[in-house]
Amino acid sequence: MSAEEERFLKDYVPREYPSVALAVDLVVFAVTGSTLNAAFVRRGNHPFKDALALPGGFVLPDEDALTAAWRELEEETGLDLGEHRAHVEQLATFSSPKRDPRMRVVSVAHLALLATDGRTLPDLARGSDAAAAEWLPVYNVLADGDLAFDHREILAAALGRLAGKIEYTLTAARLLPEEFTLNQLRRVYQAVWNTTRLDAGNFTRKMTGALQDSGRKVTHGKGAPAAVFTVRDEYLSPPLIRPAK
Amino acid sequence: MSAEEERFLKDYVPREYPSVALAVDLVVFAVTGSTLNAAFVRRGNHPFKDALALPGGFVLPDEDALTAAWRELEEETGLDLGEHRAHVEQLATFSSPKRDPRMRVVSVAHLALLATDGRTLPDLARGSDAAAAEWLPVYNVLADGDLAFDHREILAAALGRLAGKIEYTLTAARLLPEEFTLNQLRRVYQAVWNTTRLDAGNFTRKMTGALQDSGRKVTHGKGAPAAVFTVRDEYLSPPLIRPAK
DNA sequence: CCAATAGTGTCTATTAGACAGTATGCT
DNA sequence: AGCATACTGTCTAATAGACACTATTGG
Question: Which residue in B55, B39, B43, B53 sits closest to B137, CA to CA?
Answer without folding.
Answer: B39
